Amino acid sequence: MGGRVTRAFRNFNVENRARREISKEKPTPAPRHRTARLDAMADSPEIKEEVLRKDDQFLNLLKDVYVESRDPPVRVKDGGGEHLPSKQEEKRLTKLGHFEALDVKKVPKGKISLVEALTLLNNHKLQPQTWTAEKIAAEYSLELKEVNSLLEFFIPFTVLEFPKDTKKAIPRQNQKKLT
């Protein structure tokens, strides 16, 4: 409702107001800076003569100047070739599990792929006496400190199934069928 009222006032007598504004006398422009006037004066013959005239005093001073130029030493920026490896990293083949299609084939030494991490965590969880931190570090070329941190802070998920005969389970006869 308010938009209609304001639109009506805004559009009221628009053509007459526009004609009145257009027919007004134009204001005089602000005075220009004097550098703009110098551009117009550049065509005058006195200025051209002054520019083309040689000054012997300045020429003598210019002849006394001797400039010796040398290139600065070339600096090589580090990280200029970010897409190229700066040094050749030693890589190892991965120990592929059941997910060969999802895993990468080569990883740098000291790192493991996601499938390898899940595999070694699961092996340690199932057989902690066999898969100790020292054996995992040797097997996957990792540092012992990192392996200990990995085994301490990352635990693979376990699926627990509760027996259906518990008191917390919902009996079958009380369940409603959705229609």
UniProtKB/TrEMBL annotation:
<protein>
    <recommendedName>
        <fullName>NADH dehydrogenase [ubiquinone] 1 alpha subcomplex assembly factor 4</fullName>
    </recommendedName>
</protein>
<dbReference type="GO" id="GO:0032981">
    <property type="term" value="P:mitochondrial respiratory chain complex I assembly"/>
</dbReference>
<comment type="similarity">
    <text>Belongs to the NDUFAF4 family.</text>
</comment>
<dbReference type="GO" id="GO:0005739">
    <property type="term" value="C:mitochondrion"/>
</dbReference>
<comment type="subunit">
    <text>Binds calmodulin. Interacts with NDUFAF3.</text>
</comment>
<feature type="region of interest" description="Disordered">
    <location>
        <begin position="17"/>
        <end position="42"/>
    </location>
</feature>
<dbReference type="InterPro" id="IPR009622">
    <property type="entry name" value="NDUFAF4"/>
</dbReference>
<feature type="compositionally biased region" description="Basic and acidic residues">
    <location>
        <begin position="17"/>
        <end position="27"/>
    </location>
</feature>
<dbReference type="Pfam" id="PF06784">
    <property type="entry name" value="UPF0240"/>
</dbReference>
